[in-house]
Amino acid sequence: MNVNFGFSYIGLIFLLMLMLPNIVWSKNKPKDYDKYVKNENRVLLLFERVGEISVTCLSLIFRDFNINEISGWTVILLIAFVLMVLYEVYWIRYFRSAKTMKDMYSSLLGIPVVGATLPVCAFCLLSIYGKNPFLFVAAIILGIGHIGIHLNHKKEIE
User: Which ranges does the record mark as transmembrane (predicted)?
Assistant: First the structure.
């Protein structure tokens, strides 16, 4: 395993694509959202928090995620980026909606809990592109918590 420390501008771009909509969302939460937060599983919440911190830090400190050359591996990075673009599309659709829990948990292209699933998949692909097992494990931990919590919310609204 050969990982290279250094700043990742690609990691920063992915994190900005992840966090900017969430900042806007904090002022546009769905109706009754706080009612659902009270029921969140504490173990899943711990996984989510550990994953969030880990993914954020690891995405920035390995230059392996930067584009050094165009190769077959670049396709993986491109797919990860497309997933993040779809994540932005999801948020645009949500912000234009009535902002209900049903709007927040609607699918996109058949992907369930798309707001949780797409970024986790994108960061998994970014880790594969950068050949970085640390980010992969962090993204899986994030996925267990984040996707798990949001699947539970979706079940509650159905």
Answer: 6-25, 46-65, 71-92, 104-128, 134-152
